[in-house]
Amino acid sequence: MAKKVTNKKPLSGNNRSHSCRATKRVQKPNLQVITLDNGKKVRISARELRTMNKCAA
Predict the structure, then answer these.
(1) The domain containing residue 28 runs over which residues?
(2) Domains held by the chain: number
(3) What is the per-residue pLDDT across 4-21, written as a single tens digit (0 to 9) for each?
(4) CA–CA separation, 38 vs 55, rounded Å?
(5) What is the pTM of this model?
(6) Residue 44 domain-assigned?
């Protein structure tokens, strides 16, 4: 199992229908599993992965 590096958590809220009924929904973060140069696997968000790639270039 990959180690989770980011602190992002699922967001919760409501789905709203046209009649304004509310049902619970969850938005999960976009976590990706990547392998670092030292061979360890970590789970980071896609936004953090883009930032890492930008800084490394």
Answers:
(1) 3-50
(2) 1
(3) 888 899 999 999 999 999
(4) 18
(5) 0.73
(6) yes
Angle of CA points 12, 17, 21, to nearest 5°: 75
- 55 phi/psi in degrees, rounded to 5: -70, -30
Q: Is 37 among the domain residues?
A: yes
* Structure confidence by residue, pLDDT tens digits, 33-57: 999 889 999 999 999 999 999 998 7
Identify whether 22 is part of a domain.
Answer: yes
What residues are paired with 10 via a beta bridge?
none
Distance CA 49, CA 46 (A): 5
**Residue 8 neighbours by CB under 8 Å, 6+ apart:** 29, 31, 45
